[in-house]
Design a protein that fits this description.
With about 725 residues, this protein is mainly alpha-helical. It contains 35 helices and two strands. It has four domains: about 240 residues, no CATH class; about 130 residues, no CATH class; about 80 residues, Serine Threonine Protein Phosphatase 5, Tetratricopeptide repeat (Alpha Horseshoe); about 80 residues, Serine Threonine Protein Phosphatase 5, Tetratricopeptide repeat, CATH 1.25.40. The longest helix is centred in the N-terminal third of the chain and has 21 residues.
Length: about 725
């Protein structure tokens, strides 16, 4: 007779009851069955191998504590007496499942044994104390069994505990310890107990295998977790358990590991693929994994499945998944398609935020502002994206003609949120429109909210200088001279300060603080170009770069030299204009230096997007390309974090880490991104590594992790 695979004599009754598998013929009676069917051996030594690094060798020899050998005794040895006491006990209780399990166990141990036709006819155990022990064991009262054994041995030193009872008790107690450790999230203990009791790790107790898999995953040994789930799919036949195994694994394992599991899918009894009922959910989960990791290329079959769901079902969530997946890969046209579909099905903050990001990327910030305005207060992420849209909108050069209503609502949101960055951008926008008085108000407002904002101070100084307010410029210089060289040197010009430009006709008045702020508008369809700034001074003779001149009249070589000079004086925006002129040089070496310089200038000014564009305007050497790319990615990571886009922060940091060693300050940023995403274990690990260098921010981060966990207790 062929029996199911089992592990040892002790895994039968209590394990079945605890796992809720009553009615199933257990797979845990004797090691002889395991030895006879090696391809279905218990998930044990090779899978439970561990090492401090989390990536252990394939095989680690563990101490063998699986009980005595159980091979068939030689034919010429006297037959052993078969202990049928447990058989009679289960029969007397009417426990059919355990009775059948006991019959299977005894047949495995004693091939020549024939079960009694009527188990109740088996003589009752004359040992009342042993009968009581069996009863306590069957009720799961293991401590009381131990106590009864100890009392019996104390009273009768010659009495020997039946090996059957002892083996069963050891395994049942091990299972209880494993389950308790798992419930308490003591994952190393779970692995240790499993390693010491491999008889638990069989198809007869899938719950234990699931718990061991979870323990491996939580202790950062994903390959071992995958092996545990693979064991089930390779060896176990119960269809609901196999399906549940894949569902559990999908919530833990990586995309690639899940593909390993799915390769063991079978055809079920109905003739269909056994995991078809969860295929939609799996496809959604895989696309979501691609949303988190921009380097992950999800199989097109999963994308196509989610696309069909998005197009045929009424939910907007599938279209959102696809939108974020394509956005992470800079496939803007596809991302826009899915975000628009999601908004058509159900306008929401995530759909509008995603669409706004696409529109910002493809230089349509005006529509981005309009799309996200109704959702601007729905979350900190939405608000950050809204202000990113408005900042990009105001930064367009030449400036965009905006309606009075749009300008008013952007200004109102800026005042309400006290967003210094947007207030500063309003100041530059006013200067582009030739309204230095308006610029003064906005730069002053930005400085009230953020007193250490040097760009706003510089903007205020040059705007007052343009208005001829020498006293105001001197006041700013007294405060900022030691902090900003460009502010200290402001006014070193051959000519006097230019006169203020009058506001162009059609200007709108927008309150910022207590002062009226004028923002120019123009008739619909009439773009506002550089002419709105007023006349520019003719090029002057270059004297170093202390004078303020229009670089457009300079030859490319002189403009390049002026650009580097301005960089030395920490005047990056002026330097960028000089490098722009140098980019027109016929010589490729000059263009390369100009593109490199302009990218550095924009980086220093905090205009990361413009820096990235500048870096592509002329081919760069590998060293320069890596330098610019690492700087741009670092700035983008910081900007994404400030905007509340923490997954995007991690993406940029990961891309940068492939190019250069991660600085300690960026490690701290990574740690806080994990903390914001409530991925506490990863945050703690990063902060610990950075704190080892003595970094105070990292030490503070560790404290923040502990404080957060006390507020939000959760598995990690």
């Amino acid at each position: 007779m062929k029996f199911p695979i089992v592990a040892s004599m002790g895994v039968v009754t209590a394990a079945i009851a605890a796992a809720g598998l009553v009615g199933k013929l257990p797979e845990g009676l004797a090691n002889v069955i395991v030895d006879a069917v090696p391809e279905r051996a218990a998930f044990s030594e090779r899978h439970l191998a561990t090492a401090p690094s989390g990536e252990a060798p394939d095989v680690v020899q563990l101490s063998q504590a699986q009980g005595p050998a159980t091979s068939e005794p030689p034919r010429d040895t006297p037959p052993r007496r078969v202990d049928e006491s447990a058989l009679r006990y289960f029969a007397s209780k009417g426990d059919t499942a355990r009775l059948e399990a006991e019959i299977a166990r005894l047949r495995a141990l004693y091939p020549n044994w024939t079960p009694p036709k009527n188990p109740l006819a088996v003589p009752q155990n004359s040992d009342a104390q042993l009968e009581t022990m069996w009863r306590l064991y069957s009720e799961g009262r293991y401590a009381e069994v131990r106590k009864a054994i100890a009392e019996r041995q104390s009273a009768d030193p010659d009495w020997q505990v039946p090996s059957d009872l002892l083996d069963r008790l050891n395994v049942a107690e091990a299972r209880a310890r494993l389950v308790n450790a798992s419930d308490l999230k003591q994952y190393e203990t779970v692995i240790q107990v499993g390693a010491g009791t491999p008889s638990l790790l069989t198809c007869s107790d899938i719950d234990v295998l699931w718990r061991v898999a979870e323990a491996f995953a939580e202790t950062k040994r994903p390959n071992r977790a995958r092996d545990a789930y693979l064991y089930v799919l390779k060896n176990c036949d119960n269809e609901p358990e196999r399906l549940a195994t894949v569902q559990k694994a999908a919530s833990i394992l990586s995309y690639s590991s899940m593909q390993d599991l799915l390769s063991y899918e079978r055809t079920n009894t109905a003739g269909a693929l056994e995991f078809e009922s969860i295929r939609d959910d799996l496809a959604r989960r895989f696309v979501a994994a691609g949303d988190e990791d921009a380097t992950l290329e999800v199989d097109p079959k999963y994308l196509q499945r989610v696309e069909r769901l998005a197009e045929t079902e009424g939910s907007a969530s599938d279209a959102l998944l696809l939108g974020w997946y394509q956005l992470r890969r800079k496939n803007m046209s596809e991302a826009e398609r899915w975000f628009r579909l999601a908004r058509d099905k159900q306008d929401s903050a995530p759909a509008s935020q995603g669409l706004a990001l696409v529109l910002i990327e493809r230089k349509a910030p005006e529509e981005a502002e309009k799309v996200l305005y109704p959702w601007r207060d729905s979350s900190s992420d939405a608000q950050a994206t809204y202000f990113a849209a408005t900042a990009n909108l105001l930064a367009i050069d030449p400036p965009v003609a905006l309606g009075t209503d749009v300008l008013h609502r952007i200004a109102q949101e800026t005042m309400k949120s006290r967003d210094a960055a947007t207030a500063q951008q309003f100041g530059w926008y006013a200067r582009l429109l030739g309204q230095p008085a308006t610029a003064v108000e906005w730069f002053s407002t930005a400085l009230r909210w953020k007193p250490d904002d040097e760009p706003s101070a510089y903007g205020l100084a040059i705007s007052r200088n343009e208005l001829g307010d020498r006293a105001g410029v001197a006041e700013i210089q007294r405060f900022w001279a030691a902090k900003s060289d460009r502010i200290a040197r402001l006014g070193d010009e051959e000519d006097g300060p230019p006169k203020a430009n009058a506001a162009p006709p059609g200007s709108a008045t927008i309150a910022a603080g207590s002062a009226p702020i004028r923002m120019a508008t123009a008739p619909e369809g009439a773009p506002l170009g550089r002419a709105a700034r007023g006349s520019q001074a003719a090029p002057r003779k270059l004297s170093g770069c202390r004078t303020t001149i229009d670089p457009r009249g300079l030859p490319p070589g002189a403009a390049l030299a002026r650009g580097w000079c301005l960089m030395d004086l920490n005047r990056p925006l002026e330097a960028a204009e000089a490098f722009e002129v140098a980019l027109r040089a016929p010589a490729s070496s000059l263009r390369e230096d100009a593109a490199y310089g302009q990218s550095l200038a924009y980086l220093r000014a905090g205009l990361t997007g413009k820096a990235a564009v500048a870096a592509t305007r002329s081919p760069q050497s590998l060293a320069r390309s890596n330098e610019l790319q690492t700087a741009i990615l670092a700035d983008r990571a910081v900007a994404a974090f400030d905007a509340g886009r923490y997954n995007e922060t991690l993406l940029f940091l990961e891309q940068r880490r492939q190019l250069a060693t991660e600085r300690t300050d960026l490690m701290v940023l990574r740690g806080y991104a994990y903390l914001k995403l409530k991925r506490y274990a990863q945050a703690k690990r990063i902060f610990e590594a950075a704190a080892a260098t003595g970094n105070r921010d990292a030490i503070r981060g560790l404290s923040d992790v502990l404080a957060e966990q006390q507020v939000w207790p959760r598995k990690f």
